[in-house]
Each structure stands twice: as C-alpha cells, then as structure tokens.
Amino acid sequence: MIAFLGLVVGVVLGLIFKPDVPLSMEPYLPIAVVAALDAVFGALRAFLDGIFDDKVFVVSFISNVLIAAMIVFMGDKLGVGAQLSTGVVVVLGIRIFSNVAAIRRHIFHA
Amino acid sequence: MSERDSEYPESAEPPEATGRDRLRASVFKPSRGQTVVAILLAVLGFAMVLQARETGSDDTYAGLRQDELIQALNGLSAASRRAENDINSLERTRSSLQNNSEKRTAALAQAQKEVTTLGILAGTIPTTGPGIRITITDPGHMLTINSLLDGIEELRDAGAEAMEINDSVRVIAQTSFEDGSGGGIIVDGKLLNSPYSIDAIGDPETLDKALDFTGGFNDEIQSLGGGVKVSDKRLDKVGITVVRTPVAPQYAHTVQ
Questions:
Q1: How far apart are CA B247 and CA B115, in angstroms?
Q2: Least crowded by CB within 10 Å, which of A103, B161, B238, B250?
C-alpha cells in the first residue's frame, strides 16, 4: 500500500513541478526508466513468491538504472548508441513480460 | 540486476501463504520495509512523468540524420533570407508612405493656415483680436457715405485687418455703401442708422491715430455736427462675429 502511494506521489510531484530534464541526462532517462520498471516487476514477482527482500530490491533497482545508463553512455561513445539502446529495451521488455506472466499466474492462477 | 528468472525460477515450490494472501496482507497491514520501496517507486514515477513529458514535447528534428538536418537547416536559412527580403521591402514601403503622409500633413497645415487668412480677409469666419471700437453719433443725419468711406479707408490704411459696422455688417473688399433715402447709410443692402459703431481689429494705437489728426475723420464728423468716440483706445479683444457667405466668382477666373 505504502509502495503504491509512493508511486502515486512521484507521479503527482512530476506533474506538479513539471521539471525539465537536464540535457546531460536526456539520453539516459528513458532506458533508466525501463530498467527501473524491470526491477519493480521483478520485485513484485519475488514478493508474490514470498522471497522478497528490501535490500535485494534496492540494490537491483539502483544497479539496473546505473547499468542501463552506462550501456547507453558506452553505446554513444562507440557510435552504436541507438542500436544498443534498442537491444537493452528488447531484453528488458522480454524480462518484464516473463515477470508479469509469473505475477499473473500468482494473482489469477492462470 | 533485478530478481531474475534464474534466481526465482517459475518452478519454485509455492510457500504456504499464496501470493494473493501476501498481496492482501501488504495492502491492509503494510510493513515498514515498504517505505524504501515506496521511495524508489516515487523516484520511478517522477522519472516516468518526466520522460513522458520530454517525449511529448517538440522532437521534430530529434530523429533526423546529419544529411537531413543539413537540408532542414538550408531550407530554414533560405526561408529566413526570404523573410528578411520581405522585411526590407516592407520597411521601404513604410518609410515612403510615412514621407508621403508627412508631406501631406504639411500641405494640409499650410492650406489650413491659408484658409484662416483668406477667411478673415473675406469675412467668412468670425475673428477676434486687439483693436478699437469707434462710436459715431450723427444726430443731424448729416453723415454721408463719403465721410464714412474716408474713415474706413483711414482704418484700412492703418492696417485694420477686419471690420464690422453696427455688429451687423462685415466690411470686406466687396462691401458696398449707399446713402439711405431718409438718412442713414445702406451698407451691403442693410440700412444702418446713427449711432454707428465700427469695430476694427488691428494695432489699437495706430488705428486710433489714423482717425484723430487735423482734418481727419474725427474733425470731419465734428464739422458735420456729429461726434466720434473711440472706446478705451486699447481693447484687447474686439470680437467680430458677423460673417459673410462667400460668393463663387461668376466671371472672374484664375489666370492659368
């Protein structure tokens, strides 16, 4: 419940303050968001499995975001930024789908 | 990375409590550990909104390649050159129109001034200014148009710019004088009787002197048994309100 409220508060804050993304962060933000989403769905699945751990979640969330940003940074430096971003999004997307499938089985038993 | 499939295989044995129970418990009896999750989720929500807004904003040129960008830039600079040319030509037009309108305004002011001058001369507009008011009494009806004309000519000579007799007739170049049959004088077809009053606008000092010299107008009237009284000699404001309707010349034409 508190977790859900946190999500709502974050969205509302973003809507209220309408901050501009700093130019230096602009390329990293979308991938970081997708990576964080992956961490969140993984955590939800682990929670439903009964093996959720705060520490693991925090570490996985932060490391996901950092690694996503690093991959984009390296891709930009190597000149394959767009392709690497696509690859990361595809991989994270597949993971999100499989996690959501497990969550679905837990909640709906289907 | 996050909880991976390999870490939490789908084939793992479900614990005693099912996922649903745990979800329900977390909703109704939130543990303190949820705060950390809440904070991270808040960050995520914030970032998502940020990114969504960023994506929604102007990204016309975001996905273009270098060639396309160069082309777009060329197009834009050509458009801006055209716009600058337009601005220049419009500015030229504007300044020429301004010149025209200034000239027109000056001409209009000049014409207005001329209208005023000519209006005063032709007696078509009321005027006011310094001058004198001369009252002539003629109890014996001895005054003739010759004497009156003498006086008016003297006043004209002294620079009277506008004149009026008895507050009813404006004296201008075309004014006619005629002796009335039973005394009095007909000026412009209007019978005037004693006492006559002549309002004249001009330098009061000069006008007064023009009438008052030996053998002048004053003496002439007095020899006829009448009296001349000059009001106060210096009137700051003599009002001449009678106007004449201008008559368009029928025979006289301008010389081309």
A1: 15
A2: B250
Residue A16 lies in a domain: no
CB A61 within 8 A of CB A39: yes
Compute the nearest-CA separation of B108 from chain A (Å).
60
> What is the chain A residue with the closest CA to B57?
A20
Q: Count Cβ atoms within 10 A of the Cβ of residue A107 and give its class: 0-12 exposed, 13-18 middle, 19 or more buried.
A: middle
Q: Which domain holds residue A54?
A: 23-108
Could you report the predicted ipTM of this complex, rounded to two decimals? Answer: 0.80
Domain carrying residue B141: 126-240
Contacts of B44 in chain A (CB under 8 A): 7, 10, 33, 36-37, 40
Let me know if residue B9 belongs to a domain. no
Q: In CATH, what number is assigned to the domain containing residue B160?
A: 3.30.70.1880
Residue B169: name the closest of B109, B114, B123, B118 by CA. Answer: B123
Whether chain A has a CB inside 8 Å of the CB on B20: the answer is yes
Q: Count how many pairs of residues, chain A against chain B, have C-beta atoms within 8 Å.
A: 155
How far B23 CA sits from the closest chain A CA (Å)? Answer: 7
Q: Do B2 and A64 touch (CB under 8 A)?
A: yes
A56 neighbourhood in chain B, CB within 8 Å: 3
Non-local CB neighbours of B203 within 8 Å, separated by 6+ positions: B130, B158, B159
Q: What is the pLDDT along chain B (256 residues), one digit of tens a residue?
A: 444 444 444 444 444 567 777 777 777 766 777 788 888 888 888 888 888 877 766 666 766 677 888 888 999 999 999 999 999 999 999 999 999 999 999 999 999 999 988 888 888 888 988 888 888 888 877 788 888 888 888 888 988 889 998 888 898 888 888 888 777 888 888 888 878 888 899 888 888 888 888 888 888 888 887 788 887 656 678 888 888 887 888 898 888 8
Top residue of A12, A54, A85, A109 to mutate, by most chain B CBs within 10 Å, is A54
